[in-house]
Amino acid sequence: MEQVMKRFLKYVKYETTSQEESTSCPSSPGQMTLAKDLADELKALGLEDVILDSNGYLMATLPANTTKNIPVIGFIAHLDTSPDISGANVSPQVVENYQGQDIILNQEQNIILSPKDFPVLLNYLGDTLITTDGTTLLGADNKAGIAEIVTAVEYLLSHPEIEHGTIRIAFTPDEEIGRGADFFNVEKFQADFAYTIDGEELGELQYENFNAARGKITIRGKNIHPGHAKNKMKNALLIGAELTRMLPEKETPAQTEGYEGFYHLNSFHGSVEECKLDYIIRDFDLTSFQQRKSLMVNIVQQLNQKYGEGTVILEMKDQYYNMKEKLKGFEHIIETARQAMEEVGVKPLINPIRGGTDGAHLAFMGLPTPNIFTGGHNFHGRHEFIPLSAMKKALAVILKIIELYTQK
Question: At what angle do helices 286-307 and 236-246 cross, to 10 degrees?
Fold first, then answer.
């Protein structure tokens, strides 16, 4: 079980930040570097059919050691880390026997991980916590998932007396920029169903996710000397600000939760002459999702009527959809995960994913894939941390799912 921590601390050292602007796959070279080293590790462990393709998708097989008719189960995690914050030179800190104190992540920048801000820390008294050094993210999303999957198959290989069916594993690139399943070969993977090990806190079991779209907006202004600008200047920045005010004020990520959707202004930059806004649109309900997109289109049309056709240009693209509909008829996958958690002493937390995973794409590609926790907290930021006990529980859940399917 201690291997899961050793692996995690090794994997987070790889810089695998995905790059939105890149057109290659994987979008950053570090992902392929990690994938190659993982391929070597899997071969050394004794897995079969270890194949790394040119796009950075790594697959491998743990063959069945029984003649029972057991479904082929897949376990999937992603190689990349979020571009929201640096993933270079990650220097994890290990805090043993945590006693509820503030953890100084970075003395110089006065960055502190405190239970005052994150009360969940108090759930892990006496535990070993792995944190950042305050300058980068940690990378538990999703290198904890990788470590947990690899350690699970290593455990089965070293305990041949444990009966199991065929297990397929896959590590994918570019999940954080919505491309994780773009080149995933479901037919080649040959699993009956799978689980992504990509959730956050202990107990998360997720089979609903946002419907998602992205709106890239370009506003073309007209710059005139401000002393002579009356009735001539068209300030792209002010039009952009006007657009943001036309959206529902309280439907932002900071003011929504649960099943509530939102509009999120991800970036806004430019000048009087031209500015660009990058929005993401999210909703669990498909009808509401379509209404949100329609509102964005209507706002753009209104602004073009006011300021002239071609002033505001919207490029909108759907990114992924709610997997819930595609899991109908496969309830056993969810129920087995729930049972596995309960049997290893984890209380299942059934919550919708306020985001997306590779599983959302894969479900629509014919591979039902709900999501299970890694054990981490505060993903995509410098306050990210993961308790060792939660990683061990994630590992135990993987093994228990495999065990339960041998008994069905």
Answer: 140
